[in-house]
Amino acid sequence: MTEALTDEDRAQGIVRCDACPVLCRIRPGRPGACDRYANVAGVLTRTDPLLLAQKVARDQGAMVPFLAGAEGWNGEVVAGAPTFVTGIGSGTTYPDYKPAPFIVAAEHEGFDTVTVVTEGIFSYCGVKVKIDTDRHVGAERAAVRAQGEEVGHVTTAEYGSQMLSLGGVRHLTGGSKREGTVTCDTLLALCNKQAVELTVEGGASMTLGAGRAPVIDGVIEECMRVGCGSATIGMFARQWRDHVDEVIVVDDHITGVLTEHQAGRFLDMRPAGIRVRGRKSTPGRYFQVAEPGSGWGGTDVTDPLTIVEAINPKIAWPGLRLLMVSTTGEDSAWYVLDAACRPVPAAMPEPVRAVVERIGENCEPALATVLFMAGAGGSLRAGVTANPVRLTRSVQSMLTRVTCGGAPVTVWPGGGITFMVDVTRLPDGAFGYVPTPALVAPIEFTLATADYRDLGGHMDHVVPLADVVRRAEARATPWRADNPWPTVPRPGGTGAP
Amino acid sequence: MTDGALATRLVGHRLHLNHGPIDLVIGARGDKAEIERAYAQATAAFPAVLPALVAELPRLRAPHGQPPSGAVARRMVAAVAPFADVFVSPMAAVAGAVADAMLEAMVAGRDLAMAYVNDGGDIAFHLAPGATFDAGIVADVARPALDAVARLDAYSPVRGIATSGRGGRSFSLGIADAATVLAATAAGADAAATLIANAVDLPGHPAIERRPARLLDPDSDLGDRLVTVAVGPLGPAEIAEALDQGAIAAQAMADRGLIAGAALALRGVWRVLALDSAARPVIESRQA
User: Fold this and answer.
1) What is the DSSP letter of A49?
2) Are residues A118 and A151 part of one domain?
3) Residue A129: strand pairing partners
4) Do residue B219 and residue A20 have CB atoms under 8 angstroms apart?
5) Which of B25, B219, B285, B286 would you mutate first to test chain A, the one with the most A CBs within 10 A?
6) Which residue of B has its CA nearest to A38?
7) How many whole angstroms separate alpha carbon B92 and alpha carbon B220?
8) Which domain, by its residues, includes B204?
9) Using the beta-carbon criterion (under 8 Å), do B218 and A27 form an inter-chain contact?
10) Across the interface, do A99 and B8 touch by the CB < 8 Å criterion?
11) Considering the domain boundaries, does residue A467 fall inside one?
12) Whole-angstrom Cα distance, residue A3 to residue A113?
């Protein structure tokens, strides 16, 4: 019953799917009976494509943009281009409608490799978010909420950055159903490079997306500090010496005072007698000059003179020139002491302003970055080999390369296969979820064919790469030049060059 | 290009059979060699199923007509026959009928403690004496989570379980998020679930958006009947009213001996049909 579409059908934009004997007629924007094929703007389209990443063609060693500017390239696989099959869309064991993982054989520079491609279901997973800011986003261990549900917490601050730990099995499945669902939604959005809104208990409200500037309490954070206050003193002391008598770099971590600091003394600068608040660490370095906040240098300071505890008139002198500046150069003020040694605001001299601007110039753009972290469990490993522990050992001895949607991962040492990956290195939409709730992420294991046989691999399920490429639903995506090509065998493997 | 029927193994020693819109997940408990033989029987029977259905599709999309000749098609017609008083085509039972037929092919001559064929949530199962089967119930496909578990044992007459409602592949005339039905066969459960989900409704309610089925799928068996495409906010009294309508329909089917139990869900509110006999299954709500 292969009746053709009628003219009326065509006028209505109906397409006929010939993927199976049902021969659905599908209206625009609708799926067929199977939900796998749909009418996308008049084109019959597979809706859950297996993603192939194709390597940029090499031309005499130089990278040529993959079909750069080629109009109308629709993601079709290009014959002959080096191809790596990713786990994206390869199917999981749950929900059960999708096919089992692929085990793909490919040849790389004369050596046979096998890539086992799957989508793992990760209940033990979460993200670590690094927010490049000195602003106080919340106390360590404070709860982080999305849509009112606790989805993680503030963890240890890192250099110039605040860190969040979100997700994890306790929030995904250990709390209420809604907590799990919201946690899953939040992780999924962050992993798929979308922005999420988070609030920290007793702290900031933030909009965060991987690889984008964080928005903290409605303010876009543009740059991360050049260093702590003490480091800033050290970096710019020589440039300031001839133009100032004292510089105080306001910082939530370590506030620096130039003439007391090792750098000022090295330059034989005269002590200025200006004492800042807080707890002295070493000369010219002060902790806790103010409370954390969204003011100067990650403190709650809006008027920098509030951190000046005293000016000793026996040491200071009228006409003393004082620069106060934050660690990003975003905030700065210039003062000259009057006859009573009180600081009076004044116009900042040009050479000083130039150095303040240089601080800003040396700040890197502030970003929120997201690492997905997950552990590959027993059943996932069993899909790779009949003897799962051998896969773990093979990964840990670096005979087997693990990638996540083609992106390189860091495998945590110790038991199991727990890995981290920068989500911006995966193709878009690489992550999914299952009702558990848990995240679905692509994962590929690549190793020499001989090594795969040795570790008890499912050799009878290995299919040639060419057969996978021919599959109707395969969709190609350009290979990211900064991701190493995964089929290059590891040193020490049987297939190593 | 026409895809053929595909058979793959899933982890957990399950079998996945796919052909066009048919996706079966098949599992069994028992002696390993027996399971392998059963899987071989299922795999052998499978490729003929879809072509046979397609050959009789016009008849199966019509509410009345000549008896069809295919084995699965006859199961479909038999499953909807008790509901001649309402509009329903044999397509309302297609998933369940495929599950029943495949289960029968799989267990014939085999000695298995338990076996099941899950056709996209419509499940036929085999239970040897002493065996039990737990079926999870998901209320909202858009926000799937295990909402309830039906525990079935060999003493219960139930061998089929099916869920219908909004969000699945099929259209619904009603607004139920899920209507899960237990019955003697999967085909019977499938047909009943479709009709119970249709009954969970608030006719004429302004928050419910409906469109003729044919505008969404030109080949729909529902023709120009209005199918639900969106449901706006509903108050607690409205939710209760809609569920009441579904419960009345389900109770009528239970009274006729057509179904053994049902659980209806709308907007997180559940209605479980009284299941008091020891021979009947237990449905435990997992709602907090």
Assistant:
1) P
2) no
3) A164, A370
4) no
5) B219
6) B217
7) 11
8) 6-285
9) yes
10) yes
11) yes
12) 45
Q: Supply the range of the domain harboring residue A357.
A: 229-361
- pLDDT of A496 higher than 70: no
> CB neighbours of A312 closer than 8 A, spacing ≥ 6?
A273, A274, A275
Of B188, B234, B15, nearest in space to B118 by CA = B15
- B1 within domain boundaries: no
One-letter amino acid for residue B159 of the chain: R
The residue ranges of DSSP E strands in A221-330, in sequence order, are 246-250, 255-257, 274-276, 279-280, 285-287, 308-311, 321-326
Residue A54 lies in a domain: no
How far is residue A459's CA from residue B226's CA, in Å, rounded to a whole number? 52
CATH label of the domain that carries residue B42:
3.10.520.10
Residue of B1, B6, B9, B10 to mutate, interface with A, max A Cβ within 10 Å: B10
> CB pairs below 8 Å between A and B: how many?
95
Q: What is the CA radius of gyration of chain B?
A: 18
- Reported as a single tens digit per residue, the pLDDT across B43-83 is 999 999 999 999 999 999 999 999 999 999 999 999 999 99
Q: How much of chain A is helix, strand and coil, in % rounded to 5?
A: 20, 35, 45
Instruction: Tell me, yes or no, whether A145 lies in a domain.
Output: yes
CA distance A145 to chain B (A): 20
Q: Would you call B54 and A1 a contact, using CB atoms and an 8 Å cutoff?
A: yes
Residue of B nearest to A120 (CA): B11
**Run of H or E including A368:** strand A368-376
| Chain mean position to CA A139 | 22
Beta strands B122-127 and B132-138 are unpaired
Kindly give the residue spans of alpha helices, DSSP state H, lying in A383-490: 388-396, 449-454, 465-470
Residue written as token pair 């954390």: A292
A154 CA: distance to closest CA in chain B (Å): 28
Which residue among A1, A97, A177 sits closest to B23, beta carbon to beta carbon? A97
Facing B1 at nearest CB: one of A9, A177, A472: A472
Determine which of A26, A92, A177, A182 to mutate to test the interface with B (most B C-beta atoms within 10 Å): A177
Is A156 within a domain?
A: yes
Residue A346: CB partners within 8 Å, gap ≥ 6? A334, A335, A336
Query: A170 and A264: one domain?
Result: no
Contact residues, chain A, for B216 at CB < 8 Å? 27, 30
Substitution target in A26, A46, A96 with the highest count of B β-carbons within 10 Å is A96
Total domain count for chain A? 4
Q: Which residues of B touch A9 (CB under 8 A)?
A: 218
Contact (CB<8Å) B54/A176: no
A287 and A391, same structural domain? no
Q: What predicted TM-score, i.e. pTM, was given to this entire model?
A: 0.50
Most confidently predicted of A443-457, A476-490, B199-213: B199-213
With bands split at pLDDT 50, 70 and 90, how would you rate the model's confidence at B146?
Answer: low
Q: Do both A249 and A355 map to the same domain? A: yes
Which residue stretches of A122-256 are H helix? 169-173, 177-191, 229-240
Structure tokens at B88: 């329903």
Name the least confident of A36-40, A45-49, A62-66: A62-66
Q: How far is CA B130 from the centre of its chain?
A: 25
Is the residue at B56 inside a domain? yes
